[in-house]
Amino acid sequence: MNERLRMLQRQPRRITITLSYHVHEALLTRSEEEGRSVSNLCAFLLEDSLRHAAALPLANGPAQADSMGMAMSYSMDKKVRGNGHLR
Predict the structure, then answer these.
(1) Residue 77, SS3?
(2) Which candidate among 26, 48, 50, 70 keeps its CA 20 to 30 Å from the CA of 63?
(3) pTM of the model
């Protein structure tokens, strides 16, 4: 039963956020340019940001990306435009 519980804990999670109009429009535009869904783009941008943050020293020590359970399966092979930040 422990193995099943571990597998369930690794399942992707769904969240809800509120964005400004301009951020939403920027996400729509970029997702269309990259040929991916807005959801997929947001997941990629968040994971990329967390991965970069894990490489930077923090006040209480470096974050461990692997311990966050980050799934790196979101169209990582697609070309990313710019520096990963919304413009």
Answers:
(1) coil
(2) 26
(3) 0.55
